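In this section we turn from sequence analysis to structure. A common task in structural bioinformatics is to predict how a protein folds when a small molecule is present, because the ligand can shape the pocket around it. The inputs are simple: the amino acid sequence and a SMILES string for the ligand, here zinc ion. Study the lines below before reading on.
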Amino acid sequence: MDARLRRVNKEIADCKNDKTSKITLELVDESPFHLKGAFPGPEGTPYEGGHFEVDIRIPDSYPFQPLKMKFITKVYHPNISSASGAICLDILKDAWSPVLTLKSTLISLQSLLCSPEPNDPQDAEVAKHYMTSRSSFEETARYWTHIYAGGPEAKAAGKARDTPVGAVRDEIAIAGLEKAHVDQFEALGFERTKVIDVLRRLNYRGANVAKITEDRVVEELLKS
Amino acid sequence: MSDFEYSDEEADYFYDDEEEMDTQEDGSAPSDDDMDMETFNDDFRVTGKGKRKSYEVECEPLSKSDVEKLMQQDVDHISGIFGVDDTTASLLLRFMDWNKEKLIEKYMDNASAISISAGISQPSIPSLPPPIRASSLSRGVEKPATRRSVRSAPSVSAKLLTKTKSLEPFVCPICFDDTQSDTMSLSCDHAFCTSCWNAYITSKIREEGEHWIRCMAEGCSLVAPDPFVKSALGTDTATWERFQELLVRHFVSHNRNLKYCPYPECTYTVSCPSAASKSSLASMVPTVTCGASPDHQFCFGCAIESDHRPVICAVASMWLRKCRDDSETANWIKSNTKECNKCQSTIEKNGGCNHMTCKKCKHEFCWVCMGPWSEHGTAWYSCNRYDEKASQDARDSQSKSRASLERYLHYYNRWANHEQSAKLSMELHAKTEKKMEEMQITSALTWIEVQFMKKAVDEVFKCRMTLKWTYAMAYYLEKGNEKELFEDNQRDLEKAVEDLSELLEQPIEADNIPTLRQKVTDKTVYVQKRNEIMLEDTANGFLEGRWTWNGTVEGFD
Ligand SMILES: [Zn+2]
Ligand SMILES: [Zn+2]
Ligand SMILES: [Zn+2]
Ligand SMILES: [Zn+2]
Ligand SMILES: [Zn+2]
Ligand SMILES: [Zn+2]
């Protein structure tokens, strides 16, 4: 049998037999080289309670070339693209070793959720958010876990998330912004989506708010 | 890691090489055909050979093995100083991107530290977890046993090929195969089966083009030395060859005096120390040819994979960038059809000549400027020169940006036209050549006698390339006396080339061949002379600092 197939089959079987790790693997189609992996968000992080799914492609020269992985579930994390799910992790690139497996790589992704690396970001905007205001970042990450990964509802700490369950998703919370800030510029006559877009790009959060003048925001709003 | 500069001293060392670098692959004597060609070429020779012209650069083609000899010199030098074997010296040099001075400095400072960084030896104390985030997830394949002391001059040869025949059944941690008994490991003792090593190294070399091949164990930074790579590849000599080629490329890419031939599959290198510094490129165009084929012509100074004489690299690149940026506005010009401005019927260009005659109304005009041909054929040939006066008028009536676009289009139009005409003349020649071959059979003409067309077409092609780049240069030249002289040369060359092109499009019949041959040969000699003048004068202008630019060109401000 083809060495790659033998190894992948064994890896899938090992993962099935291992009941402790809570890592699951399933076929996407008939090919054993296109899989969907999943794991629970790590405890004690904003991802806790979420169920995270990862698209896995096994390259022809696996295990000598790294697995190709990206998040299917939307994740708010400095090393994961909030738009595409692309992952910035060294073992998926240069630091790949053929002794790594599907399971160990998924565990690495899980631990990546525990320890973001904002200095080597995949999503620069999210990384900026993480750097300026940790608590606001975590709140947003938790909100994403709730709406995209089926995590528990964010505890309305300090702020009123008055959207009833099942109603339209709160786009301000998704962008990690304050409702008061968005309202402020919306009142000047700009479209809400535009305001959200510009404030997110400018990282209008936490201590940064004091550094960005109203004129600057308006200037950006007029440009966009 | 690439910001090391080679000293000038370093620049000389290729020329101290006493070994003759013979570029003739087979070393055979020239054949009779070559001799004939020599005599034949004498008909066309304008100036004697031997003396290097001012637009030519001194360069030397090096084969893969020539470069390997140079690499070996460095390796010998380093292994002599450090008292290490060749394999170790090579890895150290590769790690330091072949910067010998820096390597010597670092090695003298801390030999064991650099040996560890270069993947030759392991840290003697079990190091901190490897700097990868998933380190805690290592599956325990690493055995922290047998850490070797690196106090003494390290050597990689000792434990190179540990092909172990173990008694216990070995399960390879990569392929999970327990039937394989042949294993290999580097000095770290991370054992894997031979076929996994083979697949891994092959994938690194073939798919990633990587010559720096680390141990397969997670977090282990030992690097596979050459004998290990060779042994793992076994009978796959093609991949081993590719590995050696990657090593040569790495060496060449870190030596300012060398450049790898950009032609696909080619493994030649060109040495051109006189064009190694950035400042030298402000006054010369280092067009070089690799030893594999005379067609492998490229610029040593920039990324342009063809001869861009007479214009220097910075200006040529600037022009190409501009053309790319403005390509949409200029796209319409590239179209191969135009309308006759007398009868409006559509005319398609199918030869390289710019002298157009409308099939319908017989109106003769110039393809480039659409002006009547009568004005081009006589004393004042002004198609090459952008009429600043006319553009002044345009500026009055139109917006300034429109005028500058028109100015650009004037040059771009001619630039693109020479490119297109050159291609068309090659196509036309392909047809002619067939006819000439037939004629050789049906008439009394010899092979030599029908070659004049080929020679002429080659010359036309070459000159159109020169002309093409002269328009890029003229676009950036500050107007004034010097530019006018430049454009005079350009016009003379252009006129000569158009005349020759026209001759080449004449129908060939067996009985007109002798006269045609005479005419074409004369014209070819003349065109060749004009091209020499164009290139020579422009090159001299650079050396004399005669050219002034109307924009900011790198190296001139
Ligand atoms: Zn194996
Ligand atoms: Zn190792
Ligand atoms: Zn070549
Ligand atoms: Zn160049
Ligand atoms: Zn007509
Ligand atoms: Zn014209």
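The mean pLDDT of chain B is 78. As an exercise, try to locate the residues that line the zinc ion site and compare them with your own expectations.
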